[in-house]
Amino acid sequence: MNFMEKFNELANRTLVPIANKLGNQRHLAAIRDGMVVAIPLSILGGVCLIISTPPFKPETLPNWGFVSDMLNGWYNWAQANKAMLQLPYNMTMALMGLFIAFAIAYHLADEYEMPKLNSAIVSTAVFLIVSAPTTSAVASNLIVDGKSATDLLSLAGNYIPTTYLDAKGIFTAILVAIGCVEIMHFMFKKDIRIKMPEGVPPAISSSFDAILPLFICVIIFYGLSLVVQNFSGQLLPSMIMTVLAPAISGLDSLVGICLITMIAQVFWFFGLHGASITQPIRLPFMQMYLIANLSAFSAGQPIVHYFTQPFWSYVITLGGGGATMGLCILLLKSKSAELKTLGKLSIGPAIFNINEPIIFGLPMVLNPLMMIPFIFVPVINSIIAYGLMAFHIVGKGIIETPWTTPAPLGAALGCMDFKAAIMVIGLIILDMVLYYPFFKLLEKQKLEEENSVQTN
């Protein structure tokens, strides 16, 4: 048994079972599915915020004639209608934690075959209680743009603070959603509920089923929130963010990005969907980073986070897992008939960041010849892109775009910087160079096989 066979055997005994357990773990699956459900809201909110906040100042525009007039018109229109244009953002991304609490609880309840809507509503209510306790306010303490003193005086009342309903509340939403569903699952399993007599409509009976679990969930989580407030002076989401601060900063570092990239690629190499397996871990962080960047952009503050959806989709998985767009282009010019045909079949999907034809058709899976570039090309892409963003040569990710958007366009839109498209094109060329030696070895191997078949 050679080294590669021993390595594969070891991986099948250790790595594959771990990956299968992670992929089938119901809580991670619920987090993954719940976060994915919220992606359209991120796209809508991001687009609306960009429309309301043009990424330029009129005084900095060169004289481009008609184009400059159009851009100035956009800027003036956006300034005049800023509040109206930002309303979709305020109702989507600024409340992202709320939607995620609902979605994760819904999917976890589905895993347990429990009443999904009841579970989601209970989770959402508890999340609001611990993350946005209503506060009394007087008009003199409010800053409302465009309001006179008389208008302000009429605004005294109760208000829901939204500070921790956005990205800063995502981890609290995950904790609350999982905790509430687990409590409800335990109570349903032990048949602890208000039982209605036979003949009561199912909708009414189901509503009463949720009463006791709701009270228990509120008592537990609100009690925990009060304890945290009493001893630390912080709300529960603020305390959770403080505890998770090392992880939040670590995954956004170059080392953290390279590490999660390598883990995903190793899973892919063994035929396991690396992106899906790592998604429950990385997606909450990526969503939080992206929303924070977008909020900073809107406020005119520095954009600080690197590891966002545009970075993952158009740098790490450029053309699909393994950043194989460059390899697809090489295959188109291969002397091997098999590889050339594969290149023609794979280039179309690769443009839209889909590369299963390459992963399983070349294959990349368990192919020792392609293991090194398949794992390390995305890492090299990450290092280069991180450096360009760190030195402010290319903008960081601001808005979420559909991951199937062609990479140069997706990067330019996601970073709101045309230089991001140039960076992606440069990375494709670099990836072609990095894959080339391994591609030639594979091509030589395929040509020998084809010649052998023709001779026989």
TrEMBL record:
<feature type="transmembrane region" description="Helical">
    <location>
        <begin position="208"/>
        <end position="228"/>
    </location>
</feature>
<feature type="transmembrane region" description="Helical">
    <location>
        <begin position="169"/>
        <end position="188"/>
    </location>
</feature>
<feature type="transmembrane region" description="Helical">
    <location>
        <begin position="311"/>
        <end position="332"/>
    </location>
</feature>
<keyword id="KW-0812">Transmembrane</keyword>
<feature type="transmembrane region" description="Helical">
    <location>
        <begin position="283"/>
        <end position="305"/>
    </location>
</feature>
<keyword id="KW-1133">Transmembrane helix</keyword>
<dbReference type="GO" id="GO:0009401">
    <property type="term" value="P:phosphoenolpyruvate-dependent sugar phosphotransferase system"/>
</dbReference>
<keyword id="KW-0472">Membrane</keyword>
<dbReference type="InterPro" id="IPR004796">
    <property type="entry name" value="PTS_IIC_cello"/>
</dbReference>
<keyword id="KW-0813">Transport</keyword>
<dbReference type="Pfam" id="PF02378">
    <property type="entry name" value="PTS_EIIC"/>
</dbReference>
<comment type="function">
    <text>The phosphoenolpyruvate-dependent sugar phosphotransferase system (PTS), a major carbohydrate active -transport system, catalyzes the phosphorylation of incoming sugar substrates concomitant with their translocation across the cell membrane.</text>
</comment>
<keyword id="KW-0762">Sugar transport</keyword>
<dbReference type="GO" id="GO:0005886">
    <property type="term" value="C:plasma membrane"/>
</dbReference>
<dbReference type="InterPro" id="IPR051088">
    <property type="entry name" value="PTS_Sugar-EIIC/EIIB"/>
</dbReference>
<feature type="transmembrane region" description="Helical">
    <location>
        <begin position="121"/>
        <end position="144"/>
    </location>
</feature>
<feature type="transmembrane region" description="Helical">
    <location>
        <begin position="374"/>
        <end position="398"/>
    </location>
</feature>
<feature type="domain" description="PTS EIIC type-3">
    <location>
        <begin position="11"/>
        <end position="438"/>
    </location>
</feature>
<feature type="transmembrane region" description="Helical">
    <location>
        <begin position="418"/>
        <end position="438"/>
    </location>
</feature>
<dbReference type="GO" id="GO:0008982">
    <property type="term" value="F:protein-N(PI)-phosphohistidine-sugar phosphotransferase activity"/>
</dbReference>
<protein>
    <recommendedName>
        <fullName>Permease IIC component</fullName>
    </recommendedName>
</protein>
<feature type="transmembrane region" description="Helical">
    <location>
        <begin position="91"/>
        <end position="109"/>
    </location>
</feature>
<keyword id="KW-1003">Cell membrane</keyword>
<dbReference type="InterPro" id="IPR004501">
    <property type="entry name" value="PTS_EIIC_3"/>
</dbReference>
<feature type="transmembrane region" description="Helical">
    <location>
        <begin position="248"/>
        <end position="271"/>
    </location>
</feature>
<dbReference type="InterPro" id="IPR003352">
    <property type="entry name" value="PTS_EIIC"/>
</dbReference>
<feature type="transmembrane region" description="Helical">
    <location>
        <begin position="35"/>
        <end position="56"/>
    </location>
</feature>
